[in-house]
UniProtKB/TrEMBL annotation:
Pfam short name (any one): RUN
Entry keyword annotation includes Ligase: no
Organism: Spizaetus tyrannus
Descriptive protein name: RUN and FYVE domain-containing protein 4
GO biological process: autophagy; cellular response to interleukin-4; plus-end-directed vesicle transport along microtubule; positive regulation of autophagosome maturation; positive regulation of transport; vacuole organization
GO MF entry, a single one: zinc ion binding
Gene: Rufy4_0
Amino acid sequence: PVTDGSRELHSLCAQLEFLLQFDLKERRSFFGQRKDYWDFLCQGLAQRRQEHEGIRFVTSLDKLKTPVGRGRAFLRYCLVHRQLAESLQLCFLDPETLCEWYYARSPFLSPRRRAEILGILYELDGVTFHLAL
């Protein structure tokens, strides 16, 4: 199993975060706080009317104060519960929402690249992750 001490885990999480932040449009909340991929994931899952346990878990953690921290915790939660590919796929279903959040260079706007990324992420479902949540 992959644990918190695995060098590969840190590289994987950094790459996932890079992909989710690459060509992300700058958006701000009502109070001026910069939105991040965490906000995109929350909106995408809410649009699919998915009561996602990972979102509920992460929002219950009082220590997490920033969207980036919440996003990282969500990625870890999904890896442990083998839900990452499915969760992201649900967020990618609406092309209009993708265009609201990402500029044209984002790999998520390319159907071929999006399918490749999701295929690789579904392969991760076969890996066991034992991470501190």
